[in-house]
Amino acid sequence: MIGCGLDFGTSNSAIGIARGARVELAPVEDGRTLLPSAVFFDDDASLPVQFGDAAIAAYVGQAEGRLMRALKSLLGSALIDEETRLAGRKMPLTRVVEIFVRHLKRKAEAFAGAEIADVVMGRPVRFVDGDDAADAAAQAALEGIAKNAGFRNVAFAFEPIAAAYHYERTVEQEAIALIADIGGGTSDFSVVRVGPQRRLRAERAQDVLATGGVHIGGTDFDTSLSLARVMPLLGHGTRLTEKNLSMPNALYFELAAWATINFAYTRKNEREIAELVAIAAEPAKVERLLNVVRHRLGHRLAFAVESTKMELSAAEFAKLPLEFLEKGLMLDAARADFEGAIAGQIDRLQEAASDCIAAAGLKPAAIDTILLTGGSSRVPAVRAAIARAAPAAKPAGSSDLLSVALGLTQMAGLRA
User: What distance in Å separates the CA atoms of residue 394 and residue 392, rounded to the nearest whole number?
Assistant: First the structure.
């Protein structure tokens, strides 16, 4: 029997198979085991749906169609029950997620050379902060999606627990670890006892001392950076000449968030923005907003912001190119500005990590090791915040983008 572990992420996804003790991640795009969680529907319905980097390339290459990204962030929100128009017809957003999950399943089956019926899927500790009913509904929705995609039996594991399970294969002595999985849409924490003897046990519930999480991740950092630095170039925060009112905010927030960009592209929005240009105190900026909506440039704007965020994780300064919006338009970005934009979110991450340690009944000094996983753990401010929650702990090395997928697959192997 083949075990299967599926890490469906906000930004990236991976799927693995386990045959006994042998665990392998399936190649999902051009031999790579990590697939950007993106789907592109061409306006020509006769053309195939594209996934991952191919989907992004089709969009950036200005093929006519719709790019869907950050789909996982829809779970737990009212938007998951909405429909969107794709390839000339309305489609439920649950169906879009199902298409993506089915694609991953087929890739794993092609790699395994057999049908895969059972899967262990990762889930954040919290899909929805402070609402247990909504959180349960989000997991139920994901389970239904997985079954519609062809899996017959679906089990779930917390993503930081899966990362801990994979990490434990490398430890040589007993330790208490804080696992911080900072992903695209959520940040999850667990305090786990790990050790070379513990990993041999079939039942590990007593080793999981606490779990916790918040609905904050890399896409939220993108949104904050966009609102702070880019959207003002499109008129956000400017005034109208009539009654000295502010420009309406709703559309800027819609364009700044990956999951809602497509909702901004309506004729009604175009008409209303055109009317606002006539009464704007800074009409040139609002003209840029009209250009973004009219020519569906929101995703290109979001990609530019995301790229700058990643550059600022490695350097103190970066250029944010906006030539596609207006010739010669370029924004200088500094890490200090980025960190200022996300300061509130960083504080919440540190608080969540500290709360998880306290929920385990421990003092910060009791944490021996911090394991950071997830792409957003590369942001220096994130790493510093988690370190402040357990200042005496040593950092552990990790495959920060694939440890969850590997852990889920190892778990699936035990169930097979």
Answer: 7
Sign of the Cα pseudo-torsion (242, 246, 247, 250, in order): negative
- Digit-coded pLDDT (tens) for 181-227: 999 989 999 999 998 887 766 667 788 999 999 999 999 999 999 99
Domains of the chain, start order: 3-159+405-415 (3.30.420.40), 173-217+346-395 (3.30.420.40), 219-341 (no CATH)
Helix axes 283-294, 298-312, angle to 10 degrees: 110
Query: pLDDT-based confidence at 393, cuts 50/70/90?
Result: very high
71: Cβ contacts below 8 Å, ≥ 6 apart: 10, 37, 39, 93, 96, 97, 100, 259
Strands 50-51 and 38-42: antiparallel
Q: 120-169 pLDDT, tens per residue? A: 999 998 888 888 898 999 999 999 999 999 999 999 999 988 998 888 88
pTM over 0.85: yes
Q: Which two tokens stand for residue 400?
A: 């920060």
Bridge partners, residue 280, by sequence: 240
Burial of 122 by CB count in 10 Å (0-12 exposed, 13-18 middle, 19+ buried)?
A: buried
Give the pLDDT confidence of 7-26 residue by residue, as tens digits: 999 999 999 999 877 899 99
Name every residue whose Cβ is closer than 8 Å to that of residue 8 and which is 6 or more positions away in sequence. 37, 72, 100, 101, 104, 121, 122, 142
Nearest alpha carbon to residue 320 among 249, 384, 232: 232
Half-sphere exposure (Cβ direction) of 239: Cα atoms closer than 13 Å: 6
Closest to 259 in 3D by CA, of 50, 88, 82:
82
Whether pLDDT at 409 is above 90: yes
Q: Which neighbouring-strand residues pair with 83? A: 92
